[in-house]
Amino acid sequence: MVSVLEQANGRCEKLKSPDAGICHFYQHCTNFVSSDGVLYNRVMTKNRLIQGILWALIYTGLTLAPLILLLLGPRAPSREFYREFSVALGFAGLSMAGLQFVLTARFRFLSAPYGTDILYAFHRQISILAALLILAHPVILFIFDPPTLRLLNIFSAETPWRARAGLAAVLAMALVVTLSIWRKRIKIEYNGWRVWHGVLATLFVGLGMVHVILVGYHFNTPWKQAFWIAYTIFWIGLLGYTRILRPVWILRNPYIVESVVKERGNSWTLHLKPQKGKVLRFKPGQFAWINTSGTPFAHRDHPFTIASSAEARDRISFTIRELGDFTRTIKELHPGTKIYIEGPYGIFSPDHHPHAASYVFVAGGVGITPAMSALRTLADRGEKRPLILIYANRDWENIIFREEIEELKKKLNLKVIHILERPPENWQGDTGFVTAELLNRELPADRRPNATEVFICGPEPMMDAVEKALDHLRFPVGDFHSERFDLV
Fold first, then answer.
1. Exposure string (b/e) for 440-468, b if CB count within 10 Å is 16 or more?
2. Could you tell me if 178 and 128 are in contact, meaning their C-beta atoms sit under 8 angstroms apart?
3. CA angle at residue 68 from 139 to 225, to 5 degrees?
4. DSSP string covering 321-375
5. What contacts 352, CB < 8 A, 6 or more positions away?
6. Are residues 110 and 119 in contact, defined by beta-carbon separation less than 8 angstroms?
7. Contacts of 61 (CB under 8 A, 6+ apart)
8. Which of 250, 363, 420, 475 could bridge to 368 as Cys pair (CB 3.0-4.6 Å)?
């Protein structure tokens, strides 16, 4: 028998089992059952857990490294506790801010244990914490040493440049956080905000480093100077990677618009084919960033779930609903238009759970796209295990892929439950929203861990309600999955 560790490392071979017979492996094993499946799941879960812990420890170590410097080397005996405490908070905040460039650099190995959505959510939350720590640095000084308030007058000849750099850094930080929190409320266009977000974040970290260098107190030994120089080079290197090296790599593999097809629900399917070489390989449920600006250096890309089958070799497709400034332009793309794709990303895929006895997809509106990618892929693979699609929409006419879903029922062991908020006359199906009662009725009776994997995608209130309902039904928390993005 092929070892589970070999299977976990992605070797696609045939497994002969007395329980499962011959199981065929695709890009990832798809028909893993019985004790072998549980063991496979444990191996993969353990690997992701180890990776997650490792990256968390590295992040914590890099964050605390400046604080450790405070405890090492010569220190002036006259420095008060409040001053050292405020400096420690400032260093921690600045270090967190610099590491934000790592969190948004789209390193697959970094997001693999958590999921890209979790990484971006952490990025948003930790940004606020970093801002509070940095703001606490001058506030503590002002409280315990009121004469330092005069440093706020940057136009005074007596104000040193280190204070001016520090104040400018705090102002840039405040703008970054404020514009990020209030972007939608004050209706700032996404691409414009994204440009300014990057510029202000770079200024913030850069001016913060200038402030540290000009203060000079913690540059009093050669090894401390080497540390901060290395930290600065690290941040600059990340900027170089995200702004230059990665776009150069993406530039080498352009895609061409093959067609743009109108779908139900005010949505459009964008069919792309590679200008040269092979189509992007991905797992069903993953997403990619697409850039229609004509150059990857413009950094005007947006994340969308791939809707096509992972088994397709000639083209890749995205189905996009008109919801914002960018999504409204999809229908205006013409065949032959050059587009750039970066990906794939995400762990929201049934291929990560090949052991499951069944899959359940709970979708709302255009959140059907990862489920459609999975269903199309499973149909192409000749999947036989039971599948359930619970699909919530406002009305019957706006159900995206309605006809294709019916056709897939002929190829798959698929049960489809439509839920409509505004049902037509004589509607015999479910109405309203996805409820705990409906889930309890439709989900497989086998609620043991690893038996059924549930994938949830749709409006955030729907995902919240479904997750809460599954928890209420005591469904194994590790067996239902959702991916959340709020970037466009």
1. eebbeeeeeebbbbbbbbbeeebbebbbe
2. no
3. 90
4. E--STTGGGGGG--TT-EEEEEEEE---SGGG-TT-SEEEEEEEGGGGHHHHHHH
5. 28, 44, 283
6. yes
7. none
8. 363
Spatial neighbors of 160 by CB under 8 A, at least 6 apart, are: 151, 214
User: Given this model, what pLDDT does residue 361 score?
Assistant: 97
Q: Which residue has the tokens 């990057």?
A: 198
Provide the angle, in degrees to the nearest 10, between the axes of the packed helices 369-380 and 402-411. Answer: 30
Whole-number pLDDT of residue 46: 67
Q: What CA–CA distance (Å, rounded) separates 91 from 95?
A: 6
Low-confidence ranges of the chain (pLDDT < 70): 1-46, 73-78, 485-488
Query: How far is the C-alpha of 366 from the C-alpha of 387, rounded, in Å?
Result: 19
> What angle in degrees, to the nearest 10, is found between the helix axes of 81-103 and 190-215?
140
319-375: per-residue pLDDT in tens?
Answer: 999 988 889 999 999 999 999 999 899 889 999 888 899 999 999 999 999 999 999
User: Strand, helix or coil at 392?
Assistant: strand
Peptide bond into 344 cis (omega under 30): yes
Given a contact cutoff of 8 angstroms between Cβ atoms, the answer to whether 446 and 417 are in contact is no
Question: d(Cα 325, Cα 271) in Å, to the nearest integer?
Answer: 20
CB 26 within 8 A of CB 281: no
Sheet holding 414-420: strands in order across?
430-431, 414-420, 387-393, 358-364, 452-457, 480-482
Residue 291 exposed, middle or buried by CB count within 10 Å (0-12, 13-18, 19+): buried
Helices 190-215 & 161-182, crossing angle to 10 degrees?
160
Distance, in Å, from the CA atom of 484 to the CA atom of 488, rounded to the nearest integer, reads 12
| Cα 188 versus chain centre, distance | 22
Rounded Cα–Cα distance for residues 236 and 219 (Å): 20
Residues 382-441: pLDDT tens digits?
Answer: 999 999 999 999 999 999 999 999 999 999 999 999 999 999 999 999 999 999 999 999
**Residue in the structure block whose two tokens are 């090949």:** 354
pLDDT tens, position by position, 175-189? 999 998 888 888 888
Residue in this structure with the two tokens 């400046």, named with its chain if needed: 66
- Residue 341: what pLDDT? 95
Write the DSSP symbol of residue 29. B
Q: Quote the CA–CA distance of 455 and 124 in Å, as a whole number.
A: 24
Enter the tokens of residue 149: 């308030």
For residue 170 the two structure tokens come to: 């705090």
